[in-house]
Design goal:
Cofactor: FMN
Shape: globular
CATH architecture: 3-Layer(aba) Sandwich
CATH topology: Rossmann fold
Order of helices and strands: EHEHHEHEEEHEH
Helix content: 25-40%
Strand content: 15-25%
Function: Quinone reductase that provides resistance to thiol-specific stress caused by electrophilic quinones. Also exhibits azoreductase activity. Catalyzes the reductive cleavage of the azo bond in aromatic azo compounds to the corresponding amines.
Number of strands: 7
InterPro entries: Flavodoxin_fold, Flavoprotein-like_sf, FMN-dep_NADH:Q_OxRdtase_AzoR1, NADH:quinone_OxRdtase_FMN_depd
Largest sheet: 5 strands, parallel
Structural class: alpha/beta
Protein name: FMN dependent NADH:quinone oxidoreductase
GO molecular function, one term: oxidoreductase activity, acting on NAD(P)H, quinone or similar compound as acceptor
């Protein structure tokens, strides 16, 4: 019997003692482990991972493969970058559920998370095109997004300025992952509520959601 796999993806250069999103993320994943001791949990820290960017080397390698070449036809740099890309892609595809944990930076996701999304959003792998348009190939899977921000973007006038959670929701939906829970750790810099209370309430929400995975 194959083990259920959970992929915990974090994108924050700070340690957990300094990061609000990582503190809430840790509360979630530890509760998940308690509830699912037989599941295989993989933690992927993108700031400690060599995430290939879609550059000329990668595109040239793609072109060789699409034109009938094999992996052995690639040069050493192409083999290294496409090999790592495929490793991350396969890891994503094999997982059953996901957590994405990050801060909002300038209304969007950290660049390394965008690079990771470029890796996992691959035609013929996580989605394909049909006569009726694109169709996701990752249906039946579920994710949670935990995001910290200085302001409040989940409601009110600033909702339209959130190009981070809405982007991730769009990307995952494109792959067929339509079930996405959201735990905002927001208002950190506004001073209206103590930061410890914001983190506490977000952690409680995350812990409660762990039972749904």
């Amino acid at each position: 019997m194959m083990s259920t796999k959970f992929l915990y993806v974090s994108a924050n250069p700070k340690g957990e003692n300094e990061s609000y999103s990582l503190k809430v993320g840790r509360a979630f994943i530890e509760q998940y482990k308690i509830l699912n001791p037989d599941h295989e949990v993989t933690e992927l820290d993108l700031f400690k991972t060599d995430v290939p960017v879609l550059n000329a080397v990668v595109f040239d390698g793609f072109s060789k493969l699409q034109n009938g070449g094999s992996f052995s036809d690639l040069d050493q740099e192409q083999k290294q970058q496409l090999g790592k890309l495929n490793q991350l892609l396969e890891q994503f595809m094999e997982a059953d559920s996901y957590a994405f944990v990050n801060p909002m930076w300038n209304f969007s996701v950290p660049p390394v998370l965008k690079a990771y999304i470029d890796v996992i959003l691959q035609v013929g792998k996580t989605f394909h095109y049909t006569e009726n348009g694109p169709e996701g190939l990752m249906k039946g899977k579920k994710a949670i997004h935990i995001q910290a921000s200085g302001g409040i973007y989940s409601k009110g006038a600033a909702v339209e300025m959130d190009f981070s959670h809405r982007y991730l929701k769009t990307v995952l939906g494109f792959t067929g992952i339509s079930e996405l829970e959201f735990v905002p750790v927001e208002g950190i810099a506004m001073g209206q509520t103590k930061v410890s209370e914001i983190v506490k309430l977000a952690s409680e929400k995350a812990i409660g959601l762990a039972s749904e995975f």
